[in-house]
Design goal:
By secondary structure, the chain is mainly beta. The protein contains two helices and 29 strands. The protein starts with a helix and ends with a strand.
Length: 373
């Protein structure tokens, strides 16, 4: 029997199945998997190579917003009922659930609050909430507060009021990111504002509302959309408006928070954008540009060469009333979703549709793809 076990162990080592135990590294890998929440209280597991849903993780609530841990092993989910649920992506199980509401008050996500963000340790979750408080015969909305949620303790452990000049919280379209040391919060608004997370006091500011490019209007970056981004270096679109004839111009901007340096390269005529995503190797960017409204709206994929700072490919596709888009973990595919239960896969090179999938229910969260290994 010992000889049989030794022979079996040798075969397992050859296939790498035991390397996680004997070599000190985990055998599990989430490479090629993506995750998205649906209306029927599930987190679907999508295999990017097979181009199909290969599993699902039951949840207690309807998922609304997500935050991925730095090591990509856990996904923290805020539900529509304001509960926090943590999913272990390796075991495919929910490992933690707690309610944020009590008998008298219920927090709500503040409009334009910037979503959720985790600190590098994965213990603390930050968000902007407004509490709805039940009085004797009416409900009262409290002013927005920036909150710190301890995932181990299962509760809000700190709440910070906003200063008088920001009585409605952060503006619409704001995003934020916790610094690598977990001590600072970078808020990407018209300027990049840096807060001390221990006190929620502004400690520094990078002025972006007056960029170097003449006539450029303020622009915002979305660092949470790029899991492969180097620490504190972000690339996004910007718009410029000519001060004389008010002609709009579109371009690329890069900001390095370490050196505080930014670059602006104009590209062409300004068009509204539905987002900007960067490939894992940071050689290409992808955006969805549109012109017009309603049934006459024209929608195109644009592919950007980030080194040459120019658009290298365009392709129209059938517009939808509402949509989101994402990139695969290897940056070779574009995903369209968010309009009902449809999920469409496009080739990143040809920009042509590869596959249309109908999920079990409407999607309710952003698509989470993991950083390329």
């Amino acid at each position: 029997m010992l000889k049989t076990y030794i022979n079996r162990a040798a075969r397992l080592l050859q296939t790498g199945l035991m390397c996680g135990v004997l070599c000190g590294t985990p055998a599990w890998s989430a490479a090629g998997l993506a995750y998205i929440g649906t209306l029927d209280r599930k987190l679907l597991i999508y295999d990017e190579n097979k181009e199909e849903v290969v599993g699902e993780i039951p949840l207690q609530g309807i998922p609304r917003q997500t935050a991925l841990s730095k090591d990509q092993s856990k996904l923290v989910i805020l539900t529509t009922q304001m509960a926090v649920e943590t999913v272990d992506l390796q075991t495919r199980k929910m490992i933690n659930h707690f309610e944020l509401a009590d008998g008298r008050s219920k927090p709500r996500m503040s409009r334009g609050g910037g979503g959720l963000v985790l600190d590098p340790t994965g213990r603390y979750l930050y968000a902007t909430f407004r509490a709805s408080v039940k009085e004797a015969d009416y409900f009262k909305m409290e002013p927005p507060q920036f909150v710190k949620i301890d995932l181990q303790a299962g509760k809000i452990v700190q709440s910070f009021p906003f200063p008088p000049e920001m009585d409605q919280g952060f503006g619409a379209g704001v995003t934020y990111k916790v610094s690598p040391d977990g001590k600072s919060l970078y808020v990407f608004d018209e300027d990049v504002i840096i807060y001390d997370l221990a006190t929620f006091q502004e400690v520094d500011r990078i002025e972006m509302s007056r960029p170097e490019y003449p006539g450029a209007s303020p622009y915002r970056l979305s660092p949470e959309n790029d899991p492969n981004a180097p620490d504190n270096v972000y690339t996004s679109l910007f718009t410029a408006v000519d001060p004389v004839v008010h002609k709009g111009t579109l371009g690329l901007a890069t900001l390095d928070l370490n050196s505080r340096k930014s670059t602006f390269v104009p590209i062409g005529v300004d068009l509204p954008s539905l987002g900007f995503l960067v490939s894992p190797d940071h050689t290409r960017g992808y955006s969805i540009m549109f012109d017009g409204v309603g049934g006459n709206r024209k929608t195109e994929f644009w592919v950007w060469d980030l080194a040459a700072r120019k658009v290298v490919n365009k392709a129209p596709f059938e517009a939808r009333p509402t949509l989101r888009f994402g990139l695969s973990g290897d940056g070779k595919k574009i995903y369209l979703y968010g309009a009902g239960s449809s999920f469409e896969v496009f080739d990143g090179d040809t920009l042509q549709s590869r596959k249309l999938i109908f999920l079990n229910k409407d999607t309710t969260t952003n698509l989470v793809t993991l950083a390329a290994k």
